[in-house]
Amino acid sequence: MSRAQKTVKKYEKKFSTGFSKKSGSFFRAIGLFFVKFFKIFDNKLTIMIVPHSQGKVINIQTNVFALILSGLLTVGILSSFIYFNKHSIATDTEITNLMNQNRETLASLDQLRDENANLFQAAKRFQSSLSQSLSLLGINQVENKFDTSLNNSDLSSLFSTKEIATGSARELADIQELTSYLEGAVEPIEQIGRMIKTQQSLFTEIPSICPIKSPTLHISMAFGPNHHPYSNQWYIHKGIDFSTWRSGDPVMATASGQVVTVGYDNSFGNFVIIKHNHGIYTRYAHLSTYRVQKGQLVEQGNVIGYVGNTGISTGPHLHYEVHIGSDVVDPAKYINIKLAK
Q: Could you read off the pLDDT of 321-334 as tens digits, one per residue?
């Protein structure tokens, strides 16, 4: 063995011996520390409870470890109690809020059910009106899913459906039935629209609109038997008198046609007569002035003059007549007049 190898072996042996000694000292020190530490916890303690009366003194023997453990357990129990108490208070508050929200939701649900009932009443009226209109027009009616019985005011009488659970499920089923009915009503209504569109020219050829548009418009004298404003005797009034309590409101042609007469008459004052298709004539009398000429073509809704007080008149108004051939007819039959008389 060479000298270098012997030297290495020597240092290895020396290092190993030193490390072993130091390791042993270290572990012995750790062992002594734990022994002393546990001896501290194992120290005996005596707790004496001395009553103020002449009672017996109570001795409680324990050690440091048991005393610390008891203290930790006590602190843990108190901390848990405080935590769960706070959590319980928060939970009670949340439950109270949920109960308030539940009451508000129930109130909203009651309101929704009331609105649902109103909706069904409106739908019932709509169904009745639509059925009548479709019958008049000869269009296939929507399958009637409403119960036509009027003897029972309960919502269940409005639809021919099977009885299901009450509550929101019932309202949902009713709304579904209503939705189905409205979807079925779309096609007939579209047919009405197409029919009106194809007949649009016919509606413009007959006197189907009111000759005056005004929020103050009213009927001062209706068609038929009336007292004459001057003689107070019964006579046949051959038209309708429209009034707005003032002069100057525009007067419109109630149908498309051609102006055949423009002039002045002692009775009618300034007046205009328009000839329409199908042998129909309309007269507009007591005008303050007119803005059309004889032979002029006018469209339905064109302004032909203005309300006045010319001729035999007790105040500003329009005397409006409808003639079919030689017959004078009630203009209200051609326009939907719902005005105060």
A: 999 998 999 999 88
Question: What angle is formed at CA 171 by the lines to CA 141 and CA 115, rounded to 5 degrees?
Answer: 85
Alpha-helical regions (H) of the chain:
3-41, 64-137, 168-198, 200-205
Residue 119 — very low, low, confident or very high, per pLDDT cuts 50/70/90? Answer: confident
The whole model's pTM is what? Answer: 0.50
Helix then strand then coil, % of the chain, to nearest 5: 45, 25, 30
Q: Give the DSSP letter of residue 143.
A: P
Enter the DSSP assignment of 331. Answer: G
As a whole number of angstroms, the distance between CA 138 and CA 136 comes to 6
Query: Do 281 and 273 form a contact (C-beta atoms < 8 A)?
Result: yes
Considering Cα of 224, then 229, then 230, then 233, what sign does the dihedral take?
Answer: positive
Beta-carbon contacts of 209 under 8 Å, excluding residues fewer than 6 positions away, are 252, 254, 255, 300, 301, 335
Residue pair 256/205 in contact (Cβ under 8 Å)? The answer is yes
- Tokens read off for 200: 């649009």
Q: What angle do CA 322, 324, 327 make, to 5 degrees?
A: 90
What lies within 8 Å, CB to CB, of 109 at 6+ separation is 168
Q: For 76-87, what is the mean pLDDT?
A: 88
Number of Cβ within a 10 Å radius of residue 256? 20
Average pLDDT score, the chain: 81
Retrieve residue 138's tokens. 């000869």
